[in-house]
Amino acid sequence: MSGAARFTPGARVRVRDDWPERRGPCHIRTPHYIRGRTGTVVRPLGAFANPEDLAFARPAPARTLYHVLFEQGPIWHEGRPGDTVMVEVFEHWLEPAEGGA
Amino acid sequence: MPDETRIPATHDIGGLARFRCTPVEHDEAPPDAFGKRVDALRQVLAQKKLMTVDELRRGIESIPEEEYFALGYYERWLRSIAALMVEKGHVDAEALK
Amino acid sequence: MAAPPRPESLALLDRLVAALEAKGIVTEAEIAERQANTDKASPETGARMVARAWTDPAYRALLLSDGAAAAEAMGVSMAGAPPLGVLENTPTRHHLVVCTLCSCYPRAVLGYPPGWYKSFAYRARAVREPRAVLAEWGLMLPDSVEVRVVDSTADYRWMVLPMRPAGTEGWDEARLASIVTRDALVGVAVPKAG
Questions:
Q1: CA–CA separation, B63 and B83 (whole Å)
Q2: Do B62 and A25 touch (CB under 8 A)?
Q3: Where in the numbering of this chain does the Nitrile hydratase beta subunit-like N-terminal domain appear (chain B) (predicted)?
Q4: Looking at domain A1-62+93-101, which CATH architecture does it have?
Q5: ipTM for the complex?
Q6: Which of B63, C18, C63, C140 is spaced 20 to 30 A from C146 at the CA atom?
């Protein structure tokens, strides 16, 4: 899982619309409000041991972490157009987004 | 239109409407003696590889919702650290009662 | 203000430390040493880094590309600390740092997070209505400025490099550092000349 980053700066990505907290004990670092949302990769931040495993003292493979940028408007349906939120998201939460902006 | 498959976990509070009208208080105070001691204890245990910050967070996140919002910041930490030390067999649950 | 810890929490801490000591796992001296070390970190470090970046282009480049190396260059040990990222404010972009999931904060260069940073209100609101939160604290940003909220969710810690205010021409590093507040390094304020 470590090694080359799958996504490059500028890539459009969709955050998986997954809710593991509804299936049982877990620890995830992907906030609820970006699940299912499409954003843009700002840059890869390096590879880090997966916190989802570290939280349970399991062997934790390194996963690539990205800074991903989202428009505020579609998330909250309020605010000034053009305002954004930038979130650290692990690669296994991301999939390529079809279409572009 | 409630969707029970999309309810965030207790700690995942970004944008949560219940705090919409709560002003952000200018609370500048550094941690009190209790907080600093809990903070330092966590660091010592992490240095000794007895717990990770990820485990600390998992423990905090498993605190029931009403207690999560009622306890102080470092009280939540302490709950988590104590539970982890029992879970890992470093201390007996009886010794904490 | 934060409520004091309840008596049962104070008792639990005493019992936990005593149990760990009895098992030879920790000592009071180790806890005291860690605390003394943690107490030394303060926003003055972040302020000095910003002041140097304002006056030294090479340091500015280092700060923006590798915050931890820039901190080490100021004599701060980053051993064991998470990587530090620094985000540059511009005339058209303002960064505001929050951690909606817990309280991630660049402690190595800013010290303990203040109470408000850890509060439910800040964690919940900063990410959704940043302009309202900033306005309540007296910072009105024009519509021409993009507010970029930075939700500190994972392995990095983030600090803001604010813009150097007008009226500080010719100031030395120490004087510049004196106007860089902790709030400006989080993004809830901007430095002012005086």
A1: 10
A2: yes
A3: 10-96
A4: Roll (2.30)
A5: 0.95
A6: C63
